[in-house]
Write a structure and sequence with these properties.
Blueprint (H helix, E strand, L loop, with lengths): L5 H12 L18 E9 L5 E9 L23
Antiparallel strand pairs: 1-2
Length: 81
């Protein structure tokens, strides 16, 4: 099975387009190596105030090419040089 390298390619393109950046951290969940999206949710507390928090959701497919991640696939993160 061919491994998707879309995230690495996007990191590379971002770095090339923005040479002043020291590093780029893509949205990769560290334990699974899968990409994720994060939703901001609001919930009322006991005082009636709304408290916001992030609710991340791991993706089962690459957000760029649609290839399904397998359980052993590691997504290249780019990150620091």
């Amino acid at each position: 099975m061919k491994k998707c390298n879309c995230m690495s390619e996007m990191v590379k393109k971002i770095k090339e387009a923005n040479p002043e950046l020291e590093y780029v951290f893509p949205p990769i969940e560290l334990f699974s190596g899968r990409a994720y999206i994060s939703f901001t949710v609001g919930q009322k507390n006991r005082n009636g105030k709304i408290k916001e928090k992030e609710c991340p959701m791991r993706l089962s497919k690459c957000p760029f090419c649609g290839e399904k991640y397998d359980d052993t696939q590691e997504v290249a993160s780019g990150g620091q040089p």
